[in-house]
């Protein structure tokens, strides 16, 4: 009975050489290993079976301190690989009991993996978040007539404030749709995601656009230009990348 | 030394304009919500793991707590150190954000909290729809 299991980071082409991963460090500082089963290969590392048991994982996922370490290490391996070669990132915390099970996966899903890798070969992902400027919740203000009584005038004020926020937000949404449409024209593929809540995005302004775009490596000048064009007083845009193609190296069955 | 947690740094053509994100929320969004889903041998139901802000907010406290009681192995771990220079800054921002949120906990804020809970079920169905 082994006390280690294999944590899978990504799938890539089987022409990957050990030299490419020799300097990489994985979760817990472990070396990165390659399991090749032509035409694809799995990039894995050994992790402690007890720390990555079902119950430990359930606890770990609720602990941001633990989760952050794993998430950053996972992304580090995926990013390092993506700098060198096409990779299909695998979701966090995918683990196998032994090498043979990984080999079986590579054999059984070979066609899917090749298709996923073909979609992102020589391409990378850029992410765009758009925020509606001036839509943070306001503290109650004074100023409207009190004639209707404090209760009703308070409600009126709140309604007026909300209407004004809604208008600003609506304008930002319209512009966000416009910049997204432009980027769809310029890029090979795109994905939309639900906007993050303020408390997760870390932004006081409301997120109105959360999207990802796939484009050929080194062809980001044009999308930067478009983003700069729309980045303004109503809509604030944040472009990040290049990311490993997390959103696009997907299996058909995930779609 | 590897490039650490930065998403593919240095591949852009103009280094002056590198805009990689080491923001924890951005990384979590990717590694938890995107990427190939494969049934491994060890079952962990990530569908139960939502980036619920209220949950994250509670959990953020545990990062500080860990440091307070001297658990800081990850800050010396080369694999994880990529985030360390941003971490102090990120934590400061998170604390500021928490302060602002506590201060702004008016009626509208409660609305936001309700939305994030109500949206829990719908969120997954909506995700990854192609445009």
List keywords for this structure.
heterodimer, A: 255 residues, alpha+beta, Alpha-Beta Plaits, five-stranded antiparallel sheet, four-stranded antiparallel sheet, 8 helices, globular, B: mainly alpha, 50% helix, disordered N terminus, disordered C terminus
How would you concisely characterize the structure shown here?
The complex is a heterodimer of chains A (255) and B (131). Chain A is an alpha+beta fold.
Helix content of chain A: 40-55%
Number of strand elements of chain B? 1
CATH A-level architecture of the largest domain in chain A:
2-Layer Sandwich
- Overall shape of chain A: globular
Count of separate DSSP helical elements of chain A: 8
Provide the domain count of chain B.
Answer: 1
CATH class of the largest domain in chain A: Alpha Beta
| Alpha-beta classification of chain A | alpha+beta
Counting DSSP H or I runs of 4 or more residues, the number of helices of chain B is 4
Which structural class should the secondary elements of chain B be placed in?
Answer: mainly alpha
- Morphology call of chain B: elongated
Contiguous uncertain segments of 5+ residues of chain B: 1-20, 51-62, 69-85, 107-131
The main sheet of chain B comes to: none
Task: Tell me the fraction of residues in β-strands of chain B, as a range.
Answer: under 5%
CA gyration radius of chain B, whole angstroms? 18 Å
